[in-house]
Amino acid sequence: MTKERKHSPRDADFWQAIYDEGDTGWDKGEPAPPLVRAINALKLPTDTRILVPGCGFGHEVFHLASQGFQVTAVDFAEGAISAIRARTGDLPITALLRDLFSLDQDHTASFDIVLEHTCFCAIPPEMRDAYAQVTRAVLTDNGRLIGLFYETDNDEDGPPHKTTQADIDQHFSEHFEIVRLERPNDSFENRQGQEWLTELRKR
Ligand SMILES: C[S@@+](CC[C@H](N)C(=O)[O-])C[C@H]1O[C@@H](n2cnc3c(N)ncnc32)[C@H](O)[C@@H]1O
Q1: Ligand 1 centre and the CA of 200: distance in Å?
Q2: Is any ligand 1 atom within 6 A of the Cβ of residue 34?
Q3: Residue 148: closest CA among 191, 107, 189
Q4: What is the distance in A from the centroid of ligand 1 to the CA of 61?
Q5: Which residues lie closer than 8 Å to 143 by C-beta, 6 or more apart?
Q6: Is 148's C-beta closer than 6 angstroms to any atom of ligand 1?
Q7: Is residue 76 within 6 Å of ligand 1 at its C-beta?
Q8: Mean pLDDT, rounded, of the chain
Q9: What is the pTM of this model?
């Protein structure tokens, strides 16, 4: 993902080129086990509305929708959203091709949960406060951001950009109460010891 590209990661074209080249090395072909565990533990009612920003091929999206949750999947790369639409069938999935940073224009207080998986590490670091603000804006009162943040050992120019515990505190604590923050022991093998599983409650 760090090879030289014509576009900035702030642009959909940067990501679409990755889909066109089939260079989606982040994709594990299944939902992240810590996120599946965290969602199960919440015992959410099936009318729960869940947003998955930067959803990629949507393994978390399909997992959640198959449990009956109302899932909105957002990505600004056409390669991601068309792949999801092709598989949606009767599942309760709305797949939106758009920039996540525009969601507060028409989705204020629309979701009970935001599920974050390797989207925060994909955005330019200078957008991190804006990410915290937009995810807060789209959540209902008491809404929660369930996140699996990637503390990649990539120290070169990202994406992915490293997310430390201090970064989570710095960018989210103004907008969210940090209810839970743990190093999961069920991360994918090549991400062991490099992830933070969080439950953040909207302030
Ligand atoms: C590293 S991938 C992760 C995909 C998926 N969450 C996963 O874990 O498999 C990051 C995704 O975020 C999307 N993305 C990055 N910035 C975005 C933005 N501003 N709005 C919408 N999608 C964005 C990219 O197109 C890409 O599909």
Answers
A1: 20
A2: no
A3: 191
A4: 13
A5: 109, 111, 112, 113, 114, 201, 202
A6: no
A7: yes
A8: 96
A9: 0.97
Share of the chain above pLDDT 90, in %: 94
Tokens 């957008």 -> residue: 127
- 54 alpha carbon – ligand 1 mean position (Å): 3
CB of 102 closer than 8 Å to CB of 39: no
- Residue 113 Cβ inside 6 Å of ligand 1? The answer reads no
84 lines ligand 1 (CB under 6 A): no
Q: Tell me which amino acid residue 120 is.
A: F
Are 7 and 18 in contact, with CB atoms under 8 Å apart? no
Architecture of domain 31-202: 3-Layer(aba) Sandwich (3.40)
pLDDT at 41 over 90: yes
Contacts of 36 (CB under 8 A, 6+ apart): 63
Where b means 16+ CB within 10 Å and e means fewer, 183-199 reads ebeebeeebeebbbbbb
